[in-house]
Amino acid sequence: MVYTVQQLTFETPNGARISTVNNASFRFSNEGEMLDLEETITINDLPAEVIKIDSRTLKQLSQTEIDDYHKQSKPDFSNVLQCFKPIKASRAFCIPYSLIYDYS
Fold this sequence. Notes:
Elements: E1 2-11, E2 17-28, E3 34-43, E4 46-54, E5 59-60, H1 63-71, E6 80-86, E7 93-96, H2 97-103
Antiparallel strand pairs: 1-2, 2-3, 3-4, 4-5, 4-6, 6-7
């Protein structure tokens, strides 16, 4: 079993602070596939979800599309945004996915 906590705080140009937390636990199969993913995600202490968006089209990327990026020998995430969307909101806070990927 693997457990990770990713907690990041951002300050916007207008001085607002945004805190994101992603707690996850999972395990890997013998083939390296992630199994039993359980996540608790918040933005400013409110329940949220993570969505990934193509910055060129603003369309949500599927998990299969993200997996295809990861399979590349040198994945280029320059057009991918990771967005923290509060469950009961229509807007999200987005950052470049490469920031999260490089940080991990």
